[in-house]
Amino acid sequence: MIMKAIIFKEVGEPENLVLAEVPVPSIEGHEVLVQVKAISINPVDAYVRKNKPYLDAVYQVTGAEQHIILGWDVAGIVTGTGKNVTKFKAGDEVFGNFKFIGQANAYAEYVAAPENQLVLKPANVSFEAAAGATMAAMTAWQSIVNSGKVKKGDKVVVHGASGGVGHYAVQFAKHFGAYVIGVSSGENRDFVLGLGADEFIDYKTQVFEELVTDADIVHDTVWSEDDKHIERSLKALKPGGTLLSLIVYPEPELIERALREKNVKVLRVNVTPNETYEQNMEYVAGLLSSGEVKTHISHVFPLEEMYKAHALIQSKNTVGKIIVMP
Ligand SMILES: NC(=O)c1ccc[n+]([C@@H]2O[C@H](COP(=O)([O-])OP(=O)(O)OC[C@H]3O[C@@H](n4cnc5c(N)ncnc54)[C@H](OP(=O)(O)O)[C@@H]3O)[C@@H](O)[C@H]2O)c1
């Protein structure tokens, strides 16, 4: 069987992503075949598309590939099950972030995904909203909930609060009863406050570490060549607080100094299908179904316009999620 997919043969610009016809994947015993209804796009998709060493590491490219397909986040309908599958049957509506950070081939009409990296999509949640709540939602969850151990009354600073990860981080922190300060550019003030944030800081006109010096948790997603932004986030924390670094790998010297001088834990967060992934995804499915957490979708593109989705995500100014529909 043949399907449509977005392939690229050469690292580079978004326009190198082109529509092609390729074979429908075969499934292993523990995998399901999913007819993809919605795909979500993340900044890492663009990094891999434009950086050969990263692409080679993720895909273990040998040079013999007929085509390379990117993507890790889908929502869709199960159409086939491997012989060892017990969790799903044909017709089930599912969503998940799968095989990250390996070769998942999600930019396609069909994907082969391990059953333990998918969960049931609630009937009242759209495929687009479910697809959005995969890598970005799990990153926010693993940062704020698993690593940050957020609890009622905590003061939490969320950088990038209007973005894919940040807009879930704000909503999860609120769900657990935290006082949330969202940081983004001024044009996203109303959006971030609308997510439930208690305060807003505009990083273009305000200095967050002068305004906040007693946070329990800082969720830091801001790129910097060095530890400069992490050092600023440290200043916003109170003694005993936790700094969650999602983009910069903090130097060991900084980690040791933060603990010694301020009793602050500095943790690097890497989204991963950990032992609580399914449980966390099911919890998120419940929050989506009840309406307590919403996926904000800023753009939807058809599959053949994947290059437009990549051009937008690499701008680093995404509001909520970008979705592509096969
Ligand atoms: N460690 C992990 O496992 C992991 C997983 C997923 C993502 N990430 C990383 O986390 C980051 C966020 O991901 P995402 O999907 O949320 O990206 P995104 O959707 O592109 O959002 C980026 C957000 O950052 C905001 N921003 C830009 N500069 C800022 C600054 N100086 N201070 C505060 N906010 C700023 C933007 O707001 P404005 O538009 O208002 O400027 C935007 O809301 C990316 O770097 C991504 O690679 C890490």
UniProtKB/TrEMBL annotation:
Any one Gene Ontology molecular-function term assigned to this protein's record: oxidoreductase activity
Matches recorded under SMART domains: PKS_ER (SM00829)
InterPro entries with a match to the protein in the record: ADH-like_N (IPR013154), ER (IPR020843), GroES-like_sf (IPR011032), NAD(P)-bd_dom_sf (IPR036291), Zinc-ADH_QOR/CCCR (IPR051603)
Top-level lineage group: Bacteria
Domain Enoyl reductase (ER) positions: 12-324
SUPFAM superfamilies in UniProt: GroES-like, NAD(P)-binding Rossmann-fold domains
Keyword match NADP: yes
Keywords, alphabetical: NADP
PANTHER family referenced in this protein's UniProt entry, alphabetically: QUINONE OXIDOREDUCTASE (PTHR44154)
Protein name (record): NADP-dependent oxidoreductase
Source organism phylogeny: Bacteria, Pseudomonadati, Bacteroidota, Cytophagia, Cytophagales
